[in-house]
């Protein structure tokens, strides 16, 4: 079973979606003083985009720090992005950037805390990876 690693802001929207999945999950800490997890098995990364639609800053810094560890990049199997459709073409931009840079598939994008349909799609994608 593919594990989940996720980053959630203080709003907790991404965390709430991950909880709905009822799967093994590790959280990338919001605060920089906390230690980052190290992936030891295949996982899918779920995180929201930052930056208000700008490329610079679209990937949250804790996610960048997590992916800077080669062990974490090696086990990455796919990306799921959270975003806000109000940002138009920049919707889930951070997830697109990570998927392209790490050469893994972008499995799904969902808005804010997701819908029951998003949860069903993500279940399917996790089982497929």
UniProtKB/TrEMBL annotation:
<dbReference type="Pfam" id="PF07972">
    <property type="entry name" value="Flavodoxin_NdrI"/>
</dbReference>
<comment type="similarity">
    <text>Belongs to the NrdI family.</text>
</comment>
<dbReference type="InterPro" id="IPR029039">
    <property type="entry name" value="Flavoprotein-like_sf"/>
</dbReference>
<protein>
    <recommendedName>
        <fullName>Protein NrdI</fullName>
    </recommendedName>
</protein>
<dbReference type="InterPro" id="IPR004465">
    <property type="entry name" value="RNR_NrdI"/>
</dbReference>
<comment type="function">
    <text>Probably involved in ribonucleotide reductase function.</text>
</comment>
<dbReference type="InterPro" id="IPR020852">
    <property type="entry name" value="RNR_Ib_NrdI_bac"/>
</dbReference>
